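HUMAN: Quick job: go over this next protein and say how the chain folds.
***
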Amino acid sequence: MLELFAKYQEAFTLPIGFVIVAISANQLARLFQQIHLPLITGLIVMGILTGPYLLNLIPITAPFQLKYINDVSLGFIAFAAGAELYLKELKKQINSIKWNSFGQLFITFIISLGVLWLAADYIPFLAKKENKVVLAISSLMATIFIASSPASAIAIINELRSKGPFTQTVMGVTVLKDFLVVIMFSICISFTQSVLKESAFNFFQIIIVLTEFTISFILGFFVVGYALKTALSLSIHKRTKSLLILLIGYSAYWISNWLAIFSLEQWSHAIFLEPLLICILASFYVTNFSKFRAEFLNQIRSLELYIFVAFFTLTGASLNIMVFVEVLSVAILLFSLRLVALIFGSVGGGLIAGDPIKHISVGWMSYITQAGVTLGLATVVSNQFPEWGPIFSTAVLALILINQFVGPPLFKWAIYQVNEARTRGNQKNEITREVLIFGFEPQSVSLAQQLIKKNYRVQLATMKDKDSFDDPADISILYLKSLAKDNLTKIDFSNIEIVVALLSDDENLLICEYAYHEFGTRELVVRLNHRYNSKNFLDLNAKIIDPSTAMVSLLDHFVRSPQATSLLLGMDQNQDTRDIEILNPNLHGIHLRDLRLPSDVIILSVIRGGQTIISHGYTRLRIHDTVTVVGLNQSLDDLEFKFIK
């Protein structure tokens, strides 16, 4: 029994030890968020600190022995990337994705060739070589310069809950580049081999690569995609379904590894599939061609933190910090050259696509981070060209390390610059609506405080003397001498969306008429004092609250519809109802059934031009429609940002 335990001790202790380190890394990495760095930067740093080259809490064999964790994580990250490619929301960004991909692939490649050629004397694997050899090797490095990391992009996007045209373009370009770079690399490596061996260009190698991509496409879209759809359709526990999704992602990597070994043994040539592409296509299929899109997104949200913590901690532990120190000067030079090429490629693609200037100015920051694909390409070079390949690969490894530190913070900053982050602090700036309440009394103060908690900007106007009461610390007070027009003109109504009048009927009518006729304020809420005055307010489309009947009506609804009334009154702290105006041009014309709604959100009604329309799955949204929704507060925050951005 002891012998059996000793035999399998390492198999159990290593994963358990890594889990403990990863949990600790997650807690410590959050300190980086306090200095406005991304969570994944903190995780990578924690991985390096606990890795074999510093504290050695994670042994040097861990990246190999825990490779299955890496494969499971990459499969999930590819699923998350594919889920972002929802065609009905991307259709207005197709042109931008196309031309930005062109800029990244061709402009960046050409500029990279140029700067590498000019700096050849300062780069060890290029120095003192013939011009044609310099050109050939530079083409390999230029291709590697183009590659970026979908995993890091997804992690930053999910951390910031980013949504918008900039994010969609970046995600589309990153995914598209991921497999186009491999095709370009196969062309460049065949070109390099023909130059060094002075032989004919190997077109057969290109055909093999295209065949591998075709097989990957078929497996991803039809086989793994169908398996993923089937798993989502099963009536099983959510945790079991999550495990099944992770296993499907892992199976793509397992099949790819098995096929490479099998084909090498049988035909003396290894067939390398693209498991990342397989998983992206499978996710793309489920997102766009199945009815399980909402559940799939819910599964991704519930798993993403665990996956990112495991993946980026293990990534940090696998980075050889000693190699970085040895080739630091070369790595910094390569980083600088790549940065120049990326800026030219991103700006060129953005200008051709006609993107907003703000997007063009920060777009290059989104493509700096590199990881798995880049390392894989460098490994191929090291194996194919033993004379200078190892130096090439070492320099690329050091370059990846710099990019992993510099890229995520810059991408995070870029998302903030284009106002597409949905973090709690940023949402307050984006979704704030302005309310003006007339009348200072306990009810008006309580109303103002509740609205402020829900991200409304509230002003309270009163005709009381300034010293007659204590100013509430969190409410802006406007002091008026009277409701004469001269005094009302001092109030800036231009940004006021909602006016609440809690004075006498005559005063309320004066306020409503001024707001309605002078500024066209659409939402007027009035507390009625005498029922015979109601017609005057109804003529202004005001919402009337009659205290004499409100309590009876409320009790009536509590008896007949207790759940709905509790929800309406906000008695359930986790749920709420909201009216959200559609301002996002990408949603204009989209069917309600095609919206990617959180699974806990229900659309109750759609108001267009002041009229409630009968809404169903085929109702098309229009700009300035008002949609009434019910759901969890967190989901409503996400939906509100999506509708207005």
Q: What stands out?
A: The radius of gyration is 30 Å. The chain has three domains: 2-421, 428-545, 574-644. The mean pLDDT is 81. Residues 223 and 282 are 8 Å apart (CA to CA).
